[in-house]
Amino acid sequence: MKKNEILKLISKRLGIQKNTVEDVLETFLDIARQELENGGEIPIPPLGRFKVQKYKERNSRNPKTGEAIIVPEKNKVVFKQSKFLKESVAGLPPTTMTGIDLQAARKKHSGQLSLLD
């Protein structure tokens, strides 16, 4: 799905202008980027969360030449899927999907950005 398609769907579902939706999405993405740059994490209930994984410097070999090299430490953004998303994508029926109660999840995460609606 492309960004433009997402904007149209949100605009239609909420009955607000596409430009407003785009402003909100761009603001969210900017906040998320800043949070990740600072080593934080971004939860998106009930899908999962984005976080920064730190990898230490390590020794390795160049696969072509066999030469020993040092791979510098680095940070990488990773997505940790929730059990709900994992089972949902696997096609499990809602009754067997970890027993998640969407109403309870909505209450628990009220006030947070949520894709439950």
From TrEMBL:
Q: Give the matching InterPro entries.
A: Hist_DNA-bd, IHF-like_DNA-bd_dom_sf
Q: Tell me the keywords, alphabetical order.
A: DNA-binding, Plasmid
- Can the keyword Lipoprotein be found in this entry's annotation? no
A Pfam family hit: Bac_DNA_binding
| Keyword DNA-binding tagged | yes
Which residues span the membrane? none
Could you tell me which Gene3D superfamilies the record lists for this protein? IHF-like DNA-binding proteins
GO-annotated molecular function: DNA binding; structural constituent of chromatin
Question: Which SUPFAM superfamilies did the record assign?
Answer: IHF-like DNA-binding proteins
Give the protein's recorded name: Uncharacterized protein
- Tell me what organism the protein belongs to: uncultured prokaryote
Taxonomy of origin reads: unclassified sequences, environmental samples
